[in-house]
Amino acid sequence: MNTKYELIMYWSEEDSAFIVEVPELAGCMADGQTQSEALINIQIVIDQWIETAKELGRDIPKAKGKLMYA
């Protein structure tokens, strides 16, 4: 995995799957039956998110690493 964006992973009982969110990329999330599958899927979604942003001429946020919440 070559992403430097912060990833947040959690288990969703409702979906019976692991969910991965990328807070720095609005709406960017993926799921998987295992943690490994979810990580593979999020890399695909991140790549698609960035490709779509480029096609639409939108800014692509620079990865900030660990985000701090108050």
TrEMBL record:
SUPFAM superfamilies: TTHA1013/TTHA0281-like (SSF143100). It comes from the Bacteria. It holds the Pfam family HicB_lk_antitox. Gene3D superfamilies: 3.30.160.250. Residues 12-64 form the HicB-like antitoxin of toxin-antitoxin system domain. InterPro entries: HicB-like (IPR031807), TA_system_antitoxin (IPR051404), TTHA1013/TTHA0281-like (IPR035069). This is Type II toxin-antitoxin system HicB family antitoxin. It comes from Dyadobacter frigoris. The lineage of its organism: Bacteria, Pseudomonadati, Bacteroidota, Cytophagia, Cytophagales.
